[in-house]
Amino acid sequence: MLRAYKLLVIPFSLALAITFFSFSTAKAQSLEPYAAKPLCLPGAYPVDPVDCLALGPSIQLTEMAKLGLTVPVRPLPAVKPDPVLNVSPVSIARINLEVTEKAPLYTTFEDATQQVNPVRYIDPGQLRYVSFINVGYYNNKPYVQLRSGEWMRASPVAFSDFQGLAFSRTPRNSFGWIVDTAEVRAAPTYAAALVDRTLLREDAVQIYDVQTADRTDWYMVGPGQWVERRYIRQVRINTTPPEGVTNGRWIEVNLYDQTVSVYENSQLIFATMVATGVEPFFTQPGLFQIYSKKPVETMSGSFEADRSDYYYLQDVPWTMYFDQARALHGAYWRAWFGYEGTHGCVNFSLGDSNWLFQWAQEGDWVYVWDPSGLTPTDPSFYGAGGA
């Protein structure tokens, strides 16, 4: 009986000892500082939070924040200018004749409708527009009266209502515009799946990252949303004045992206899409100054030996010359912006050219550059330029 009792006491004593040791150890440990950190609440942590671990969703949110992506998305600090700026100072009509035909002008409406007794002609050309003060119809066809009093066959035209953006402060990240209905992919590669997001021509988008793949640049326009170069035009923000600019005011013309940025007091205040010179009539890179401002200006000329590129443009609005015959001006004949297509001038929508004309002063700087480096920079390459 005693032996059995001893056998029972030994395990009980051992268990009691182990329990006491464990309790003593736990009590001792509880007196030490707790070394492990809890997880941080999901969020962006640009610096070490110290008192928690920024793991899990926080890693992705922090990386997004570094690119300027926030949840919810932070809007651009910008608005479209007043739509009244789109109102043209003149009425414009397009000459409805084959490019190889001279355009006759007549003293009276009756002569114009009967096509008799022309008093003069406008040369053949691909781009011919006139400004008018009256319009009449004959057999449902429009005839316009010019400020000179002459009549001719021409059709009144509507204008692009595209407008850029006016900024209350410089945005934290880049942005741009869509130039054609865009495919949006989940990663910067043609192999990535398409994303269910529709981007239309002239939509403004924020740009958070740019990567090169499949021999093109890809622009990140949202979390897991990428658009390739052919669909988008970027504004590359740089508030450092170009060398030579001394008054904190300049207009930057980006030939590669077909954009214009306007800076005042070294802050971005306006940006838009434009059309610049197409090969071989490039807009010349360099630093220039606006030397003449004209509310309207008639432009005409040709550069080809056979005059096949002749143009005649009456009362081009909001014109500012900066490099010989090259000017910043409205282009009532242009429906799309973001593509090259001029003889060297920088074409704006009417609303954008009006805004710029009101802001700019003679003597303000115009900085023209090409980030791709493809535009010739040798001054001997360039003539006087044109519209």
Q: Count all strands and give the number.
A: 24
Q: How many structural units, i.e. domains? A: 3
Helix segment tally: 4
Helix content: 10-25%
What does this structure look like?
With about 375 residues, the chain is of the alpha+beta class. The chain has 3 domains: about 70 residues; about 60 residues, SH3 type barrels, CATH 2.30.30; about 140 residues, L,D-transpeptidase catalytic domain-like (Beta Barrel), CATH 2.40.440. About 15% of the residues lie in helices and about 35% in strands. The chain has 4 helices and 24 strands. Strands 2, 5, 6, 7, 8, 20, 21, 22 and 23 form a 9-stranded mixed β-sheet that branches. β16 and β17 form a beta hairpin. The N terminus is likely disordered.
Write the layout of secondary structure elements.
Layout: H1 2-30, H2 57-66, E1 78-79, E2 91-95, E3 103-106, H3 109-114, E4 118-122, E5 127-132, E6 134-138, E7 141-145, E8 151-156, E9 165-167, E10 174-178, E11 204-207, E12 209-213, E13 216-222, E14 225-228, E15 232-235, E16 249-254, E17 259-264, E18 267-273, E19 286-289, E20 292-301, E21 311-323, E22 326-330, E23 346-348, H4 350-359, E24 365-369
Parallel strand pairs: 5-21, 16-24, 22-23
Antiparallel strand pairs: 1-9, 2-5, 2-8, 3-4, 6-7, 7-8, 9-18, 10-11, 10-15, 12-13, 13-14, 16-17, 17-18, 19-24, 20-21, 21-22
